[in-house]
Design a protein that fits this description.
Length: about 350
């Protein structure tokens, strides 16, 4: 086999090698049933055990209380931008910290009113607001924020306190650190950044929303949370393969010692990389220091030519995915859970020895 690359892709992104290896072993003959999981009915007891297992592993990792449940939907995080106002009702307040928040509030406005109560657009989306920097509107139904801004490389290091239901896009930092689930009405995450393949969105949702429809009257049945919740996320055929991979990833995180252990590892990886960037005479971090993401590290060099030469050097060293998103430019290293410390070491070495 060709050597595996050091994968810094933003999404779809790196998966744990042990998970890929299990998928590889089981691909043609799932659990000795004589067929692959992809060829099985989603109504089979085998698949039921997979989806139950995925829910159980996530419940254990996050210590999810009885008031909440786990769902697996389709349509990406992007469909949630629309389902949220459809189900919670128009009138959400939004903190805008980047491209995905911008899309979320724009989609909410197609359903009804939605307020952007804070935005960092004029400042190049370099920072995360503290709670005293915004004021909730009088009529706010919920507060929406993006916990990690994949493109700009910023991340909340606190949970905003709003006094209304909290709705959070955690697509790029789900399973990266412990949380108190009771703080949230709804957490959603497209799987392809930190927890699985594309094509599944994980939700941790308060049952008061998932079990009784309180949204807009004209919302189609398939876009109502209770429709899916009542059918165990199988109102229609789910992404069976994707849910299986999520189960394996969640079990892998449990075997590593859970979210506290993963968080410590993520902190160490990010600290190492940011300190190399801070000490490097050619490099400048994009994010404000107190808003830096542990998942997506964004920085630039003094000239685009230096960046191009550095990317070329990275290619020679078997490292991929380091070009910044087109809306920010520069460089971006996505160092999700599954990116090994050895990959970060290699990037840090390459950067330290790069002089232009
Ligand atoms: C990637 C991403 C999305 C979009 O996800 P899709 O699955 O493509 O809809 C939304 N929010 C955040 C924070 C993301 O990183």
């Amino acid at each position: 086999m060709t050597e595996r690359v050091h994968n810094f892709n933003a999404g779809p992104a790196a998966l744990p090698f042990s998970v890929l290896s299990t998928v590889h072993q089981q691909l043609l003959n799932y659990d000795d049933h004589g067929l692959s999981l992809m060829e099985m009915s989603h109504r089979s007891s085998e698949f039921q055990a997979v989806i139950d297992g995925a829910q159980a592993a996530l419940t254990e990792l996050y210590n999810i209380p009885d008031t909440h449940e786990v769902m697996f939907l389709q349509g990406g995080a992007s469909l949630q931008f629309a389902m949220i106002p459809m189900n919670l009702g128009a009138g959400g307040d939004y903190l805008n910290t980047g491209t995905w928040s911008t899309r979320a509030v724009a989609e909410a406005k197609t359903i009804g009113s939605a307020q952007e109560i804070w935005s960092d657009a004029h400042n190049g989306f370099k920072s995360i607001p503290q709670d005293h920097e915004w004021t909730l509107s009088d009529t706010a139904r919920y507060l929406h924020y993006t916990s990690n801004n994949t493109i700009y490389g910023t991340q909340y290091h606190h949970v905003p306190h709003a006094g209304v239901p909290l709705v959070t896009d955690m697509s790029s930092d789900f399973l990266s650190r412990p949380l108190n689930i009771s703080d949230f009405a709804l957490i959603y995450a497209g799987a392809q950044k930190n927890i699985g393949p594309s094509g599944v969105t994980v939700l941790i949702i308060k049952k008061s929303i998932s079990r009784s429809f309180i949204g807009e009257e004209r919302v189609p049945k398939i876009l109502r949370y209770p429709t899916q919740a009542e059918k165990g996320s199988m109102y229609n055929t789910p992404n069976t393969f994707g849910i299986w991979v999520i189960k394996l990833v969640a079990e892998h995180v449990l075997s590593m010692g859970g979210l506290t252990a993963v968080d410590a590892q993520n902190q160490a990886k990010a600290k190492q990389l940011y300190s190399v960037i801070d000490e490097h005479p050619l490099c400048d971090g994009h994010a404000a220091k107190n808003s830096r993401s542990l998942m997506n590290v964004t920085f630039r060099m003094q000239t685009p030519e230096q960046e191009a030469r550095f990317l070329e050097r990275c290619g020679e060293l078997n490292m991929i995915g380091l070009k910044g998103h087109r809306s920010v430019g520069g460089l971006r290293a996505s160092i999700y859970n599954a990116v090994p410390t050895a990959s970060v070491d290699r990037l840090c070495d390459a950067l330290s020895s790069f002089s232009g």
